[in-house]
Predict the structure.
Amino acid sequence: MNYIKLITVYVLSILYIVIGITHFTNPDFFIPLVPPSLIYLEELVFISGFVEVVMGVMLFFKKSRKLGAIITIILLFAVFPANIYLYLSETPRKILDISKNQALFRLPFQVPLIIIAYWHSMEKSSKRFSFFVLLCLYQQLFIL
C-alpha cells in the first residue's frame, strides 16, 4: 500500500504544480470562476496558482508533505465557494461552456480531494482507510 500512496502523492503533486502554473499562463480561464463580489480577481487567481505550485512542491518531498497536505486541505476549502458560484451563476457557466447540471455535478468532488490530502498528511493509516482513499482517487481520476 505504501508504494501506491507514494505514486499517488507524486501524481497529485505534479497535477497541482501544473494546474498552479496554468493560473499564470491562462488566468482568463480561472477569473470567471471567482465570485465578482470579491475584489482583485486576477490577483486572487495568481495567489491561488502560487499556493497550488508551492503545495505541489511541498507534497513532493517527504519532509514537507504533511504541511503541504494541510495547505491543500485549506486551499480546497477556500476555493469551494468558486464551485458554488459556478453553479449559481450563468455567466461563468457560459464562459466555460458547461451546464448547470455539470456545475452541480462538480460540487461534491472537492470532498474526495480533501480526503486524499488528509491521507497524505498521515504518516500511517489503516488498510481500510487507505482502501477507501483509493476508491476516492479512482473516482477522481476515472469518473470525471
